[in-house]
Design goal:
alpha+beta; Ubiquitin-like (UB roll); 9-stranded mixed sheet; 22 strands; 15% strand
Length: 758
Amino acid sequence: MSAYELRKSALVAAATTSGKREIEYPRKADGKPKYPSEIYGENVFTLKTMAKALPKPIFASFLKQRRGRQNLDKTTADSIAHAVRVWAMDRGATHYTHWFQPQTGTTAEKHDAFLSLLSNFTPGGEEVTPIDLFSGSQLLQSEPDASSFPSGGMRSTFEARGYTIWDTSSSMYVQRGPNGTSILYIPSVFISYNGDALDEKTGLLRSTEVLSRAACELVNLLEPEAHVGHVHTTLGTEQEFFLVDRAMYALRQDLKITGRTLVGQLPPRHQQLEDHYFGRIPSRVMRAISELELECLRLGIPIKTRHNEVAPAQFEVAPIFEEASVAVDHNLLTMDVLHKVAHRHNLRVLYHEKPFKGVNGSGKHCNWAIATDRGENLLDPTVRPETNYRFILFLLAVLRALQEHAPLLRLSISSSSNEHRLGAQEAPPGIISAFLGDQLNEVLDAIEEDRPLKNFSVPQFQSIKVGGTVLDVKVAGLPHIARDLTDRNRTSPFAFTGNKFEFRAVGSKQSPSFPVAVLNCAVTAAVREIADALREQMGSKPRLSDEDKLTVIRKYITLTKPVRFEGDNYSAEWVTEAERRGLPNIRSAPEAFAYLLKEKHMTMLTRTTGIFSEGELRSRYHILNERYAKDIIIEAETLKTIVGQQILPAAFEYRKSLAESAAALKTVAVDCDPEVEILEQLAPLVATLQKEYRVLVDVTAHIVADGESGEANAHAQAAYDQLVPVIARVRDAADELEATVADKYWPLPKYTELLLTI
């Protein structure tokens, strides 16, 4: 079957066989549908489930360990292991796995069976008895091969031992396996034989602890009567993604290997009519997302929102906020479940930040806040933010963190895939700034200038004062509505959105762990700096006065003013203005990676907060650079194959067909000018692609050879400087050919078929 026939066959299949999968929603004994709250967490070994399964002293001992007050002893571990094994096997589990986040951009798991064999020696010989067994030591840790995961040189191939260790702050759960069985998942961290972090999660957990200590210290300094004992970060991760037909996906080698289309022209209609965003969810997609939500309910993942995104075939799901480490686990688990569910519906989910050139890419907007053990959000401005000094000081701590360590936040979201999205009309650029909104800016300006607040008047529809919460839309049939303290700015990489910050630059396929850990660390350093300034201002007085607080507040309002920006982050004027303000404009991932080893940032991450060791940072530096270079080289090698073995042969075949047709027409004295005209258009396009293809082959070989002996960052930078432009030029030449070569000859599913067939 020819490439064209395969394309058409896949298109017919997508149109006629899609949407056949139906699932039965769970029902109660009386036949009525269950409420979501009745399904929520049924496959999770929650604290409530654990409390029922364990003796009270054992459960109390576990809670003390979970709060960091004691180590988990063997008796407690064995009791929990027995209880969770029985619970899991009652739900069909035959295996267990320590589920962790290596620095590969995805999760990892190794399955072990509960089945064991006991040997009894009798006078008649050895007798083997099968038994289901799961011990406390098996629960607490496992041993994957550390040399087979990225380590940045910390572990040699012959130093293979590494450990996965149960993260007791995240609940175990069962997930469906093959043939009606299930698997017990144990959320874990991953460390080397020497105790170095080899994963994404360990740094996040460490950062949460140090931020908690620093934030508690600041709150109790401001309000000695508060007695706040613990603070945690909350996170809500909006997950964007594309869904395409799986048969179409199977015919696109570039999508399968790199996650994005390396060639392809936009269809006549894509997102320019702005009609897809929040539009009706296609039936086939609705079935898949509904099944995803049901699976997530069972796993205790609180999916709250689903909707169409801006680009065709692009969608989003978003959860209710949770404690950050749990939210990260749930985000990665959601991605995994969606991958499996999409497969069942003959769809393929694409998490690449920019799978289709020319339409919006996908992000993972991380909504981040800080909460106390009393349930208070420290970033809640309340009705009168101008007198809420605690809120203002924590707000200024976040701004100070951005001002001092913007390059770290930029590098935390840098990758070869996210580079295609940043600054591309749907994501913020490489300049890290914060959006607060007119009202909060007025609060800070008024405090700095020691003057009363101005009134805000917007003609025609609104008249609001700072601190106001009601909006009258001046339509008699409509009620007055609550209005957030700030507007939204979709171009800002770090926007305040009412009572939280939205870190919009995080890539859709990356784990949120490292970006959130870096943010936690930078805020920790800023909180400590502000606490020191307050203590210095207080001197020998028993407690801070309002004037003491205002003095420090004014100082940091002035210091952090350059990082506040309310305008269009996409504009060329902002680039000039940011440079004037001294804000770094980091244009590439390799440039960003280099900042990880700069003394200022390394000191903050190692000595100031203690989140990472110097060895762990150097390891991550090498992993980031190596991964970037490998990604670009893989794209180049894939593009070589597609152009050399599919596109150029298709163009040659079409050219031959035209030439033969023109020659045949000429022999019978029929006008062949139309064929000749197309041939003349085709010839330079083929020549250009052939020329750029040869350059791609040569440059790729050069970059691969340099990587065998070159320094990691230099190799990544060379890939960016030399290979990325060539890939772009080859694509441009191939896309021009796509517009000229007859559809019958084109070997790949086109954007129209990929984006508009679900």
